[in-house]
Design brief:
mainly alpha, 4 helices, 0% strand, binds protoporphyrin IX containing FE
């Protein structure tokens, strides 16, 4: 059965927005639990492990934040790839997908900096600001995927 490209794009775009929202909620929880933000002093590993000992609730929440952020990254990357491969002719979806991916990559970099800086307040503030930007960009991509423009004459958009 052939894959419905438009449906695929819409699904990963919506999942990206939902997952970004979940990442923000868990990030706020990390911030709210004393000591959780510095409980994994390394990145991308946590205490030297891919899967750390999750008995400590501070490690559990911090690790969950990283995992959901990784999931968000996969959805946003999939959206970008689908836009570039299948919807090149639709400049709107290509542009917003690239913007969304760029914000995400910056956010993950700043996320790593929150760890290596020992939760420096300036870095954490930038991380919070970029977190909302990540969500906003993902929502815009989802909306554009749901309401595509009519293809220009002579071009085909699936
Ligand atoms: C989609 C990507 C991400 C989003 C949307 C996101 C969002 C957030 C938000 C909203 C907060 C709460 C900030 C506050 O209340 O001031 C937070 C906290 C935090 N994030 Fe992320 N984050 C992302 C990725 C990452 C990554 C990859 C890391 C690195 C491992 C990371 C590490 C942290 C840490 C350590 C905190 C707690 C800071 C503290 O306790 O002061 N984040 N994140």
């Amino acid at each position: 059965m052939p894959i419905d490209r438009r449906r695929f794009l819409q699904t990963v775009a919506i999942l990206g927005a939902v997952s970004a929202y979940a990442t923000i909620i868990v990030g706020g929880t990390v911030r709210g639990i004393p000591g959780a933000g510095t409980i994994c002093p390394d990145w991308p590993l946590c205490n030297g492990s891919i899967v750390p000992n999750l008995a400590d609730v501070r490690i559990l929440i911090e690790y969950l934040h990283r995992l959901i952020a990784a999931l968000t990254g996969m959805f946003i990357l999939s959206t970008l790839v689908a836009s570039l491969v299948w919807f090149r002719a639709d400049l709107r979806i290509v542009t917003v997908s690239i913007m969304s991916f760029a914000v995400l990559v910056t956010q993950v970099g700043v996320g790593a900096l929150t760890i290596t800086s020992g939760n420096d307040w300036v870095v954490v503030t930038i991380h919070l600001a970029l977190g909302t930007a990540t969500l906003a960009a993902a929502i815009i991509v989802a909306l554009v995927s749901l309401w595509p423009t009519a293809p220009a004459k002579g071009t085909t958009v699936a």
